[in-house]
Amino acid sequence: MAEDAKTLIEQAARRFVEEVPALASINLIVGIELHGRGDTQHFRLQCPQFEVTKGLATDSRIDVEMRREQFNVLAKEAKIPDWVEAFTYGMAKASGPSQYLRLIASVVEKQREREQLKTARKRA
């Protein structure tokens, strides 16, 4: 099960960075905590290399916490708006220095605006 989680974390991170290419150059360690039935799994994600290891990320700048079931669905199918919704409505929680969180939120929002402009131009 842990190997499956590692693969899903790597896939989700790669897809997220593909959708928001401005985040590709950020060097960041993310601690990921997945809550399942009666247990909690901890992972460390190193970006931009997308190295995922099992265990506590004592050197993480940002910590992400969510239910394992919710993560499985998001990791396999989610696009940026789905991730934004998960964090907005509390299905996922991120903690860390506010500068990092604001930077990521700002970059994601600008990318969403660009995508909306592209869609509007295609329709016109």
Give a quick rundown of the structure.
The chain is α+β, with helices and mostly antiparallel strands and 124 residues long. The chain has helices at 2-19, 68-77, 80-88, 98-123, and strands spanning 28-35, 40-47, 51-54, 62-67, 92-95.
- Helical fraction equals 40-55%
What gap, in angstroms, lies between the N and C termini? 47 Å
Radius of gyration: 15 Å
Q: Report the principal-axis shape.
A: globular
CATH class: Alpha Beta
Q: What is the count of helical runs? A: 4
Give me the CATH fold name.
Answer: Nonspecific Lipid-transfer Protein, Chain A
Report on the biggest sheet.
Answer: 5 strands, mixed
> What is the name of the CATH architecture?
2-Layer Sandwich
Order of strands in the sheet with the most strands? 3-2-1-4-5
Unreliable runs, pLDDT <50, ≥5 residues? none
Q: Tally of extended strands?
A: 5
How confident is the prediction overall: mean pLDDT? 90
The fraction of residues assigned to DSSP E strands is 15-25%
CATH superfamily: SCP2 sterol-binding domain
Supply the helix-strand structural class. alpha+beta
What is the string of SSEs from the N terminus onward?
HEEEEHHEH
Number of domains: 1
